[in-house]
Amino acid sequence: MPTLTTAEWDAQFRRQAAWTHSVRSHLYRRVNLHFAANVLDVGCGTGIITEEIADQTRGSVVGLDIDPAMVAWSQEHGRRATYHLGDARDLPFPGASFDVVLCHFVLLWIDEAARAVREMARVTRPGGAVVACAEPDYGGRIDWPVLPLGRLQAEALRREGADPLAGRQLKGWFAGAGLQTEVGVYPCLWDDAALRAEFDGEWRLMERTLAGLASPAELARLQAEDWAAIEAGARTVFMPMFYAVGWKNGC
Known about the structure:
The chain has nine helices and eight strands. With 251 residues, the chain is α/β, with parallel strands linked by helices. Strands 1, 2, 3, 4, 5, 6, 7 and 8 form an eight-stranded mixed β-sheet that branches.
């Protein structure tokens, strides 16, 4: 992952959570999250989604992340959930431990994502659900005016070991874990207000993550063109976001 402070990652996670809020609410209802006794959030980061889950269920909620700094942040700032250090590819829990196991913007960062999904299925009880709330697919990104930002971001992700085409692979990963799977895709299409509000934060992140892929002068030019299009009301940014729900044992 790019070298950011934990506080910077927390800000990015909050932006991502805002993008997918309505779909998460639908998925929570779909898997009866409110009535789940035990829930696991895999790749919890700074606990943004984990604490949201804890507010929406009567049961206990556990967040797990491989980064000690993320876990420490979550333990310090969390309210209801408990947090553990661990690897999604080798979850430190017995089989059939959770009613619902979720992740959000995580599988693209795991170099053995199929193995991670199998582990998520292993620790889910029969009749329970595995949910990938959001995985982007940069292969379907659309920018207007035509700017190479999607291509550059995909290259930056590959450089960091991530898979920018994770979204389209969700169905195969879930089916391969023996889950009865339903997959959907929803459009992340930013309106003018969101483009303005997120411009500074997104460009601070891009200046860090795209360093070495484009010169400072080229990035400055792209930033200026980006803002000019927003000001003119002509800017379009579209990203397909995939989700998957998998039921264990076909229930």
